[in-house]
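Exercise 7.
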Amino acid sequence: MKNGRTISIKDPKLQRIRNNFRLIILEECSRRKSEIRNQEYNFTRDKDGNYVKPSEEGVNILQKLNDKSWEIERPLRASIVKCALCGKHNRDMTYHQKSHSWYCVQCYKRRLSWLDSFHIKILYYWANHIKTSGFHN
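Solution. The predicted structure, written as tokens, is:
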């Protein structure tokens, strides 16, 4: 996807359709993550609701549940469904290539310089880390 590409819908009826479609996706993701949180709760609480330290097997199950939750959240954060910064779903979105994420037009304009400088700092850090740690050829 081209950096800075904005998907903008001007027709109010189409905006409503887009927003409702995004809302359906968000509600389904929320429902699934809520089910996972309930399962996590059941592994860490007794029948009276008191905290119980999970067994080693329970810890493994909790880790799998956490991974499952992130399998829902990670793609959602990178999708056009909601802004990666403010989380709004009812706005036109702009793609930022370096972060592989979609931002609402307002956040994109405010954060563009910050995002670019942030990615430059990360690249600079890793370039120096590789040089000093001996991982280079």
